[in-house]
Amino acid sequence: MLDKKDCKPNASVIIPVYNGEDTIPQLTERLLKVLPDLFDCYEIILVDDCSPDNSWNVIKSLQSANPETVRVIHLARNYGQHNATLCGIRAARYEICITMDDDLQHPPEQLPLLLNEYEKGYDVVYAVPKKMPHSWWRNLGSKMTKIVLGKIMGIPIREIGAFRVFRTDLRNAFANYRSPEVYIDPLLAWGTKNFSHVYVEEDKREIGESNYSFAKLVKASLLILTGYSTAPLRFASMLGFIFMLFGLAILIYVLIVKFSQGSTPGFPFLASIISIFAGVQLFTLGIIGEYLARVYDRSSDRPPYVIRETADNYEKETDK
After folding, report:
1. Number of H helices and number of E strands within the chain?
2. Which residues of the chain are modeled with pLDDT < 70?
3. Which of 45, 89, 103, 159 is the most exposed place for a label (fewest CB within 10 A)?
4. Is position 144 within any domain?
């Protein structure tokens, strides 16, 4: 743990809240027990992502009971976990940001492990669960998404998650970011490559169910690839070049057969070749279409979130 004799840092804990009325009171209580031993000043920022349950009233009561340490923000509609997290990051007042989920799977008691690693000079430290707590198909989807993120960010860490500690000033790298599609991890990579991780015990979810399905995780991987990387376009170019060589080889084959046997293969052969090349063309067009969709999203100037209400002195801003 951090040496209490040393000057302790200040931190903002950011928690996006969605269907968290049954979990967020316990999580807040545990944080309020852990944080005083780690930081001189701290705040807990609870961002309600327009949850359909009673989360907003619950977190408002938490703020009323802890007005000096708890801040709450209510978004105008459901924008997504990363959008809500971005809102909290931009609202943070202290030099260290800590992000975590509201479902009690990220134990606050593990924070000293992350902070000890952070104190070694890293800009971002991830908490990697020693054992994945979800079903195998959920774990597979999560693994795919994290591998994609690791490749895009150019870092060796393959276990990227929502439980992280990082320097707040990294947000300067994406201060002007405006897009409805938000993923925090590649945005952090815009400001640093100095990442690390520690292994922690992650609890199983006892209340409620995860909002992420396998299909949503695959969709997230696709959005991350086309929103923060040119790798798919390069893959499409390479694929086109390979099939150009394949087509050239077929042409040579047909000419050899024509001059040696006097006839060329019939309709099945021709139909197969047409199908292969048509499939490749449609596939590459699909990749280009995904990039056009990302360009449209960003050029439409839609904000990543809009704040409806706050229950503290945080200045309401609807254009960030």
Report:
1. 9, 8
2. 1-7, 132-159, 203-222, 224-229, 262-269, 271-272, 296-298, 300, 312-320
3. 159
4. yes
Q: Which two tokens stand for residue 198?
A: 């520690």
pTM over 0.90: no
Amino acid 183: pLDDT: 86
**Is residue 4 in some structural domain?**
no
CA angle 221, 222, 225 (to 5 degrees): 85
From residue 102, alpha-carbon distances to 16, 113, 157, 185 in Å are 7, 19, 24, 18
Q: Which domain holds residue 282?
A: 231-299
pLDDT in the model for residue 86: 96
For residue 275, the number of C-alpha atoms closer than 13 Å in the C-beta half-sphere is 6
Residue 166, SS3 per DSSP: strand
Residue type present at position 34: V
In one-letter notation, the amino acid at residue 207 is I
Strands 124-129 and 195-200, by their bridges, are parallel
Q: What is the pLDDT of residue 125?
A: 94
Q: Which two tokens stand for residue 82?
A: 């990363």
Instruction: Give 215: exposed, middle or buried? Use CB within 10 Å, 0-12, 13-18, 19+.
Output: exposed
Number of structural domains the chain divides into = 2
